[in-house]
C-alpha cells in the first residue's frame, strides 16, 4: 500500500462526452417506462428488467475482457455510465454489486470455468450477486467471522449466518467469506471465499426491514449447506487478501457521493430559478463539495485504469463522500420552502431515512479512518 495519497486534479477526457450524451438519451427514454412498471411490488432500487436493458447496451462489465463478453472499455468510461445512472436515481440494484465488485473478484481470482459460466450472465443483466461478509457478531471486526466450511466427500459443508446481506432476496449468487481452518495467532489466516449458488437447498433468507420500512437487507442462514468443490473461489486460505481487494472496488464510486443528489435536483426543480441568499449559499457549498469529491473519485478510477491499487485513496473518498452525502438532505431541508410538492417531500423523506446508513455500509467511518491512518504510516 502507498504511504502517500495519489490524488490528481484530473477530469474526464473529452472522448467520454459522446458516451455521456448516449447515457443521458437512454435515461430520458427509459425513465418513463420505469415509472410505469405495472408490478405493485416493484422494488424501486432493483429491477432485473432494467439491468437487462443496460446489459443490452453493453454497460455492465464494461471494463471486462471481451473474451467473456465484456466491453474492454476504460474505467473512466465506466465512471461516466455509473455517475449518470446514480444521478438519475435509476434502479441499479440488480446488477450493481456484481458489476462493481463480484465480477472483478471473479476475474482476478476465479477459475476459468467460473469465469466462463458466470461473467456472461452478469454482463447480460441476468445474474444478481450479494456480499457475504458481515455476521451477527462480526461487522467492523470481519476477522471474527465464524461461518465455517469443512471439506467432505460431497463437497464443502457450510454452516453459519451472514447478516445485513443487501439484495440476498433477489440474488442468484453470494460471494461469502468463510473460515476453512482455524486462524491461530494470525486472525486473518484460515479464511476462504466461496461462490455460492443461493438457489441450492440449505439456505434460508430472512428479510430485515430497514429504517425506511423497506426490504433491502437480509439474514442468510446456511444449515448443513453443501457447496461443490468447484465453488471454492481463488485459493483455499487466501480469503482475507481476496476480501480486502474486493472492498477496494466497493469504496470509491460515484454512489459514495451522490446517494442524496436527487434531493438537490428536486429542490432546484421546486425553486424554479427563484433562489434566495440562504438557499444560494447552501446550494453553492454543496455544489463545490460535489465538484471536489467527484474529482477525487475520478482520480481513483484513473488509478484502476493504470492497474494501481487505490485501496487507500478509495477509503478517503468513501469517508469524505459518505459524510458529505449524509449531511446533504438535512442542509437542503433547512432551506426548502414551506409549501413543497409531494414529489420533493417523498425524495427528501427517503433520503433522510436512508442517510444514517451511508457512513455504515461498506465499512464505518471509524474503520476507514483506521485504514487511512495505517496507510499513511500514522499508526
Ligand atoms: C445499508 C447497509 C447495507 C449493508 N449491506 C451489507 C452487505 O450486503 N453485506 C455485508 O456483508 N454487510 C453489509 N452491511 C453491513 C456493514 O458492512 C456493517 O454494518 C458494518 O461493517 C459495521 O458493522 P456492524 O454493523 O456489526 O457494527 P459494529 O462493527 O458493531 O460497529 C458499531 C460501532 O462501533 C464502531 N467501531 C467498531 N470497531 C471499532 C474500532 N476498532 N475502532 C473504532 N470504532 C469502532 C463502528 O465504527 C460503529 O460506529 C450493510 C450495512 C448497511 C448499513
Question: Could you describe the 3D structure shown?
Answer:
This protein has 379 residues and is α+β, with helices and mostly antiparallel strands. The protein folds into 3 domains: 14-127, Butyryl-Coa Dehydrogenase, subunit A, domain 1; 131-237, Butyryl-CoA Dehydrogenase, subunit A, domain 2 (Beta Barrel), CATH 2.40.110.10; 251-375, Butyryl-CoA Dehydrogenase, subunit A, domain 3 (Up-down Bundle). Helices cover 46% and strands 14% of the residues. The protein has 11 helices and 8 strands. The protein has helices spanning 17-35, 48-57, 75-87, 93-109, 112-123, 239-250, 261-271, 277-305, 311-335, 342-358, 365-375, and strands at residues 129-132, 148-152, 155-162, 173-179, 191-197, 203-209, 215-227, 232-233. A 4-stranded mixed beta sheet has the order 1-4-5-8. A hairpin with a 2-residue loop joins strand 2 and strand 3. It is globular and about 70 Å long. 41% of the residues are buried. Residues 38-43 have low confidence and may be disordered. Residues 130-131, 133-134, 139-140, 164-166, 217, 357, 360-361, 363-364, 366-367 line the site of flavin-adenine dinucleotide (FAD).
Amino acid at each position: 500500500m502507498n504511504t502517500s495519497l495519489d490524488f490528481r486534479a484530473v477530469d474526464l477526457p473529452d472522448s467520454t462526452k459522446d458516451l455521456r450524451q448516449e447515457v443521458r438519451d437512454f435515461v430520458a427514454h427509459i425513465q418513463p417506462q420505469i415509472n410505469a412498471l405495472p408490478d405493485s411490488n416493484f422494488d424501486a432500487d432493483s429491477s432485473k428488467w432494467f439491468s437487462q436493458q443496460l446489459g443490452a447496451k453493453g454497460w455492465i462489465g464494461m471494463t471486462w475482457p471481451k473474451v467473456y463478453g465484456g466491453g474492454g472499455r476504460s474505467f473512466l468510461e465506466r465512471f461516466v455510465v455509473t455517475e449518470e445512472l446514480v444521478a438519475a436515481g435509476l434502479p441499479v440494484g440488480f446488477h450493481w454489486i456484481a458489476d462493481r465488485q463480484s465480477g472483478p473478484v471473479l476475474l482476478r481470482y476465479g477459475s476459468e470455468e467460473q469465469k466462463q459460466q458466470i461473467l456472461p450472465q452478469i454482463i447480460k443483466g441476468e445474474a444478481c450477486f450479494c456480499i457475504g461478509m458481515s455476521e451477527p457478531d462480526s461487522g467492523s471486526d470481519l476477522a471474527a467471522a465464524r461461518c465455517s466450511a469443512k471439506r467432505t466427500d460431497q463437497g464443502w459443508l457450510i454452516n453459519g449466518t451472514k447478516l445485513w446481506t443487501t439484495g440476498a432476496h433477489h440474488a442468484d449468487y453470494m460471494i461469502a467469506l468463510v473460515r476453512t481452518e482455524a486462524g491461530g495467532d494470525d486472525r486473518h489466516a484460515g479464511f476462504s471465499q466461496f461462490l455460492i449458488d443461493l438457489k441450492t437447498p440449505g439456505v434460508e433468507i430472512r428479510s430485515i426491514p430497514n429504517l425506511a420500512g423497506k426490504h433491502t437487507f437480509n439474514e442468510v442462514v446456511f444449515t448443513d449447506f453443501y457447496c461443490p468443490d468447484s465453488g471454492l473461489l481463488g485459493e483455499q486460505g487466501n480469503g482475507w487478501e481476496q476480501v480486502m481487494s474486493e472492498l477496494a472496488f466497493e469504496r470509491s464510486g460515484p454512489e459514495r457521493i451522490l446517494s442524496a443528489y436527487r434531493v438537490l435536483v428536486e429542490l432546484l426543480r421546486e425553486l424554479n430559478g427563484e433562489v434566495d441568499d440562504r438557499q444560494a449559499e447552501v446550494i453553492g457549498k454543496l455544489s463545490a463539495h460535489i465538484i471536489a469529491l467527484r474529482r477525487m473519485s475520478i482520480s481513483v478510477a484513473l488509478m484502476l485504469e493504470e492497474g494501481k491499487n487505490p485501496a487507500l485513496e478509495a477509503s478517503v473518498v468513501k469517508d469524505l463522500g459518505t459524510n458529505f452525502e449524509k449531511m446533504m438532505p438535512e442542509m437542503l431541508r433547512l432551506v426548502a420552502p414551506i409549501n413543497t410538492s409531494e414529489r420533493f417531500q417523498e425524495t427528501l423523506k427517503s433520503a433522510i431515512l436512508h442517510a444514517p446508513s451511508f457512513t455504515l455500509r461498506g465499512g464505518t467511518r471509524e474503520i476507514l479512518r483506521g485504514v487511512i491512518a495505517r496507510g499513511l504510516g500514522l499508526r
